[in-house]
Amino acid sequence: MDTDITFFLVVSSLILSFYFILIRKPNASKPLNLPPGPPKLPIIGNLHQIAGALPHHAFRELAKKYGPIMHMQLGQISTIIVSSPQLAKDVFKTNDLALASRPYALLADIVLYGSSDVALGPYSDYWRQMKKIITVELLSPQKVRSFSCFREQEVDHFIEFIRSNCGKPVIIRDKVTRMINNIVCKSSFGDNCKQQDVLIELIDELGRLVSGFSIADLFPEFGFLSVISGMKSNLTKIHKSLDKIFDDIFEERKIKSERKEESEDALLDVLLTIKESGGLQFPITDDNIKAIFVNIFVGGTDTSAMTIEWAMTEMMRHPNVMEKAQKEVREVFKGKNKISESDLRDLVYLNFVVKETLRLHPSLPLLLPRECREQCQIDGYDIPVKMKVIVNAFACAVDPEYWDDAESFKPERFEKSSIDFTGTNFEFVPFGSGRRMCPGIGFGVISIKFALAQMLYYFNWNLPSELSPNNIDMTETDGGVAIKKVPLMVMPTLYNSILTIKQ
């Protein structure tokens, strides 16, 4: 974001010239009762108040002064920021349909085939059809369970890597990310994705380019900014590369089908079968399917990997939590060499650890923005059509009115609580809520729990001698996804009571 703002300052004089020559029609309608907000500067609005800071933290601090619902001008984008669970309920439940669309984004237009995806696509009958297909056909609990063999294979490889590095300081991030990427790739395309490494590299590059606060998205009226900033050319290059990879994968599947080779029933097979069978209200194309896969990879790789790293980081910072989690895992598994996903249902405390990690470290601290379709009200304030609405999930998750000792890592807080992340408790919405809730919760959470359970079961964990629990760097990277800035370094040792590791 710092780079974007610096770039903006360089071209601000040019923008100013255009700004004053634009013809703007006065609004003769009744003045809107917009929420309060911090004072704005010409053209840039409130950008200076979040420049150089992590946006979810900056918005939270501003909310303490201006209230849990704020009107802010982010460049040319008029935006409502919601920072309390009660008002989040107004967004996700009371006004869910009125706020069910998405604002235009250059990324979605270029990389997601004209916003024909589910994550960033506008609300429409087509969108509702595709959301139903994903929820019922692709990511249903039954379908997620069918990919258990892929999860077991990849977690086994990861555990073997740790075993081979026992007694050495290791940074687990790259291997954890590789494990999750492999699970997503195999679930999507089967056991033979030849260009997996290139595909994941492109997805990573896409994530780095788009934070939600790029200069091109903040000043959409000035289309030249996307060109001179390089954003448009970079997105176009990524799109062409992804398109070629998907074309090759689809062609390989077509050849297998013509040879009548047995289908692996991966997500691609499901989608292509639906496409070929017809009968849909809105026929889907290969491009529509490609857009869905971009959603799956962007939403299902870094997010799960970062949650595993944050969970391990918090347990290293809180040895009592680590001890309690390991004790539970080792009692439940009782010396087993082979662990199955069905064993996870008895891990109550580990479930609390995952919940608490998602509370303090939501993958998307600022949930994907919504766009108003029908004028509505939140807390008595007007929300006009086309207004952008952002819910600060992080602020809701650390609201002291809803959480005791809100900023401390305490998994025990869930022991006598039914609060969950399924979208009905608005103080805890790491995956969103309502119509726009992430459909991949089950797919992501099972991978996180399965990996963590085995890490805790087979190994003891210590910090390198130069680190202590109190000096672990907890800084987050600047971007849409709150990844730990400094990768966690740990030293695993084999748990003595386990005689062999499943090879």
Short structural summary:
The protein has 503 residues and is α+β, with helices and mostly antiparallel strands. The chain is built from 19 helices and nine strands. The chain has helices spanning 2-21, 55-66, 85-94, 106-110, 125-138, 141-146, 148-164, 173-189, 196-209, 215-218, 224-228, 231-258, 267-277, 286-300, 302-317, 319-333, 348-360, 393-397, 441-458, and strands spanning 69-74, 77-82, 170-171, 370-371, 376-378, 381-383, 388-391, 459-462, 489-494.
Describe what you observe in this structure:
The protein has 503 residues and is α+β, with helices and mostly antiparallel strands. It is 49% helix and 7% strand. It has 19 helices and nine strands. The protein has a four-stranded mixed β-sheet with strand order 1-2-7-4. A hairpin with a 2-residue loop joins β1 and β2 (77-82). α8 (173-189) runs antiparallel to α15. It is globular. Mean pLDDT is 90; it is low at 1-28.
Number of helices: 19
Q: Distance between the terminal alpha carbons, to the nearest Å?
A: 45 Å
In which range does the helix fraction lie?
A: 40-55%
Helix/strand order: HHEEHHHHHEHHHHHHHHHHEEEEHHEE
Rg computed from alpha carbons, rounded to a whole number of angstroms: 23 Å
Order of strands in the sheet with the most strands? 1-2-7-4
